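Quick start: load a record and inspect it. Here is Imidazole glycerol phosphate synthase subunit HisH:
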Amino acid sequence: MVILDYGSGNLRSAERAVARAGADVEVTADPHAAIEADGLVVPGVGAYSACMAGLVEVKGHRIIGKRLAGGRPVLGICVGMQILFSRGVEHGEETEGTGEWPGVVDRLNADVLPHMGWNTVRAPADSQLFAGLDPDERFYFVHSYAARKWELDGLAGQEPKVTWANHGEDFVAAVENGPLWATQFHPEKSGDAGARLLRNWLATL
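Running the structure step on this input writes:
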């Protein structure tokens, strides 16, 4: 299991959480290790543009693309989820994302930002990521930007499973799309619920 090291400040907490969930974890930017690992976690905190710049610097966008082309699992967390969309808009600056999913990440329409703290989510009944978790379970969010629409339908029988949350308006809280899964919240900061979610992902590897 590899945590992709591309300059994000959230590496060590993600590393500890995935290790506690039962995986052998390596934090590295080495392309070979990242491509060949059973699972790849792409964490992220801070600005969309800074995360994309760091990702491109270590060729992380190519690593993600190669893994997905081979059906190898990737889990994006927070901004590590946001950069999977086509583009992000922050403070009037538009940044191209990895384009794994169509759509834009932009500012939430909410009276209070950032959205910081615990919130419930609405997961599909057949979600593997949230299997065994109570619908009233809460997860820890810290963000002002999100994907507010989901624009990828998928093929019949292979439709992405999209989980929603609300802060001022609905936004995408998690996605399960073939080998590419992601969460807007921080499972590594979400206590027992986050640990269960990470174990659910690891069980699919």
